[in-house]
Amino acid sequence: MIKIKVTNQTQPFLIFLIFKINSNMKKTSILLSLLILLNLSCSTNDSDATVSLWVDSERIDCIGEAEQTCYKVQESSIIDEANWHLLYDSIQDFDEQYETGYIYRISVIKINIDNPPADGSSMKYILNRVISKELDE
User: Fold this and answer.
1) Are residues 61 and 102 in the same domain?
2) 88 shares its domain with 130
3) Whole-prediction pTM value?
4) How far apart are CA 59 and CA 104, in angstroms?
5) How far apart are CA 126 and CA 12, in angstroms?
6) Which residue range is the domain that position 99 belongs to?
7) How far apart are CA 68 and CA 58, in angstroms?
């Protein structure tokens, strides 16, 4: 601890010193707050995940936001014919590669959309890689 004897001569200096320290602390606090905000805004969503999907050999007609065709998919490790469900969303970078007649095993990044439109999906799918592509028999 530093002890300073305050006199009429040292008082203006101490006021200046306290103001300067306080001013630097404000700047530091503001800078630190901005860095924390920036870090929070750039952090990834904990609910984003990479998953493997089986994609069936045929898309089927379905009604989501409008009439469309849907993928039949499942996240199981092996194909269970009773476990297919409809995926109403597109799979970014996969839609162009998909060929009817082939069963695919793909790895996708599944992204949770925090504030989706009222008639939109809360998930986004992006192709990570095609694991396998086999002709359906």
Assistant:
1) yes
2) yes
3) 0.63
4) 12
5) 64
6) 49-135
7) 13
- Nearest 5 degrees, angle CA 49-CA 118-CA 86? 55
Average pLDDT, the chain: 79
Q: At residue 124, what is the residue type?
A: K
**Termini Cα distance of the chain:** 83
Q: Which residue has tokens 């799918």?
A: 125
User: Two tokens at 33?
Assistant: 């707050």
> Structure tokens of 1?
């601890």
Comparing 16 with 79, the larger pLDDT belongs to 79
Which amino acid, one-letter code, is at 135? L
Name residues whose C-beta falls within 8 Å of residue 47's C-beta, 6 or more positions apart in sequence. Answer: 112
Shared domain for 73 and 128, answered yes or no, is: yes
Per-residue pLDDT reduced to its tens digit, 6-41 = 555 555 554 554 555 556 666 655 544 544 444 444
What's the one-letter identity of residue 79?
A: I
